[in-house]
Amino acid sequence: MGQKPAQPKSQTAGPKSSQPAATKATSQKTSARRAASSKSKKPISPRVRRIHQAFVASTDLRPMAQQLLQDRSPAAYAGVEAYARGHAKEDAGALAWLVVGYAHVLDHDYAKAIDPLNRAKPLAGDLGDYVAYYLGTCYLQTGRQGEALATLADFATAYPDSLLERDADVSYAGALLIDGRAAEAAELLEKDRLPARSDIELALGKAYASLGQHAKAAGALANVYYNMPAAPEADEAYGELRKLPQAPPATAAQRKTRGDLLMKAKRYGDAVEEYRELAIHANAADRPAAELELADALHHAGRNREARAELTTLPGASSDQNAQRLYILGEVAWSMDENEAFYRTVDDLRNTAPASPWFEQALMSEANLHLVHHEYDQALDAFRELQQRFPNGSRASYAHWKAAWLTLRQGHNNDAKQQFDEQITKYPAGNETSAALYWRARLAEEDNQPGMARAYYLKLSERYRNYYYAELGRQRLKKLPATPDPPPHYAALDHVSPLVREKIVLSDPPADDLHWQKAELLGNGGLVDFAVRELQSAASEGGGNWAVAATAQLCLDTGHYDRAIEVMKRSVPSYFAVDIPDLPQLYWEALFPRPYWTDLKRFSLVNGLDPYLVASLIRQESEFNPAAVSRANAVGLMQLLPKTGKLVAHEAKLSHYNPTQLYTPAVNLQLGTRYFRGTVDHFGGSFEYALAAYNAGDDRVEEWLGEGKYRDPQEFVESIPFTETREYVQAILRNASVYRQLYGAP
């Protein structure tokens, strides 16, 4: 029954539910907002006016279009086709036919896409470029080269503002190649080479190969294979490259570039092959570096014995390379649970490369390994050594904090007080400062120093507005006895820089911009990727700061809550340090949405749970993507394992249950809240313990609870040895607090 450790969620396809009822209200609110923002001093062109009218008229298409593009079931196809026929003389009908055609493209059923795309043509208006591009591509895919050529020949002239011009050129070039007009294809594609795209380079390579210009062909194809190895065209480019007579052999630089990019893409097995070739052909001077890269790739690919064999000796290695060799050997030993061998490599690094960054990394691994095995004295020593040897390193703040925390856990309160203040003084910008402020205040409370506790809690609340510890500090502030005003001065607090308050005021989107209006209309068709691309174009041309909010709103309106959250996280990465009024309301609504709220609230309350806590758990687990599937095969909003879902469904007497229902939000919420309630009860009503178990499993939490006494659940949370689980619990509790601030009583 224990849940898996949280993993990045795969956005794999799966059965989906219809959109939540709240979408309609959101759309109405958004339409009103957009109508208000569309007021402009400039006259609106007839083209823009027409496309805006089409947007207004097609709003009711959105839920059907979304459903079709999500699951592409026969019923969904029938629904959108019926809408298209019912609006045959309107632009909204053309949009519906475009959606049907595009859905068939997603199914790779190009022949079936042709008819709806042709039906969309007469009233496509400024979406004509999308219709023409996909129609021409479908003609090409079904062997109708003449029609493909006719459809795409004058694309740039017919649609001079289209963002699809380069895409259309690729399809048109493909048709030209089949028609024996390789020179025209090459000339067309040459003008599109920058910025580089894998599909364009592949098509250009094929065109030059057809012309017998093998050197140019090899250059384009090699560009794809070596410089864009994660692209879907990379393997085909390699196949074409091998067909060329006298193709130049790969250079060492090309192999290294490809290997490095594959490692970055976590395609470790493919990187192994590239690094192996690099090592085989390397000269004596370059061979140690190549063998280190090969060993590291083998280790990441889980082939640890091979990695170790590569590093038994490393002739000609520099001192730094030998340090890296020892570090990788240590990581191999760690992965194989050979702890004594791991500790020996750390000792070797300590003796041979005490100032090396490889030793710095190894010390962090050593400290964490001791911590996981509850060897607290050794962990404390390792963290302290790490901080003292590398006081300005990237891990120094964390290492200092862990040493200070373990000092507190060992009962050395006076030393801990000093070290908490050192943390604040030495690393005021570190991620651990909020924790140091909170626990220094806690110790002041225990020493009956309410004035000091108040000063530290106030600094914590003011500087780290919506952090986990800031809310805990505000709760404790309410219980402190009155103290003289102003509170005493504490020098350590002077090192904490004040919160930079910069309120964001959104500019209006350019209502007269064609790309903006196309984005709105495409959104009604559920064509979110197209719409986002149009929004970005409008923003790049018109300036202003409206685009992020508009993109997030588009994602919210179309039920892509996970994408809205990610857009905002990238745009405002430090939002937890920001006061609520300093960001636009839309930012917060995108960061902390409430989809499926009726069911979420109902099932939460039935199980005695705070709906905001459940929403926060879902936000952490799946970001409200009902089709999310983890690497451990946990499914849906609350990321339930199929075996867990089956067991809880039996307990709930859910008739006719089958595992695919975990993709249905209502069922996932019903079973997930019941399961979580059971976990809370198992741990005596503690949400902190239950959340830790939801992430790491009941057995681990039982083990951690058995490692000593804790002042309260907050001390337990900070003591969790798994960083992922500790941050998971703190994030969910923090997020629940933000939900309450934003929306009031659930």
Automatic annotation (TrEMBL):
Residues 1-49 are annotated as: Disordered. One of its GO terms (molecular function) is hydrolase activity, hydrolyzing O-glycosyl compounds. Keywords: Signal. Residues 8-20 have a biased composition (Polar residues). Residues 39-49 have a biased composition (Basic residues). The lineage of its organism: Bacteria, Pseudomonadati, Acidobacteriota, Terriglobia, Terriglobales. Belongs to the transglycosylase Slt family. GO terms for cellular component: membrane; periplasmic space. This is Lytic transglycosylase, catalytic. It comes from Candidatus Sulfotelmatobacter kueseliae. One of its GO terms (biological process) is peptidoglycan metabolic process. Pfam families: SLT (PF01464), TPR_16 (PF13432), TPR_6 (PF13174). Residues 607-715 form the Transglycosylase SLT domain. PROSITE patterns: TRANSGLYCOSYLASE. The keyword Signal applies. Residues 21-38 have a biased composition (Low complexity).
